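Thread title: Can someone regenerate the structure for this chain?

I was given the following input by a collaborator and told the matching structure tokens would be attached. They weren't. Posting the sequence so someone can regenerate them.
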Amino acid sequence: MKKTIALAALGLAVGAFMLDWLEYQYTARAFSTEIYIILIAVFFSAVGIWAGGRLNRRTPSPSFERNQQALQYLGISAREEEVLACLAEGQSNKEIARSLGVSPNTIKTHLAKLYEKLDVSRRTQAIGKAKELRLIP
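Best answer:
Regenerated them for you:
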């Protein structure tokens, strides 16, 4: 009885394998172009990701050292440094005022003094000049 069950199970397993093999053969012939295109796309994607990772490795930047001489020469106060740092983060006047615990008018005054000291007229110019002078990272 066990031998009959084992032979029947083996026959069913071989039959299932043959059906899967025939289905694979049909699929491989019917969709061969699509399969090759997908395999080529996967290959080039993998190579692109690998090459991009190798070519764009980020080197650790040296630690930032603030230019204290420029700060002293320009006469920038500690509070104006904080405002400049918040400005570089892209915060609005209201956000800077909220984070520093002062009124927006106080921030406008600090910004006006910073613009005068840095000899600029816009936020973006102030950030660019501060980075150039190494006042902010």
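The two ends are 82 Å apart (CA to CA).
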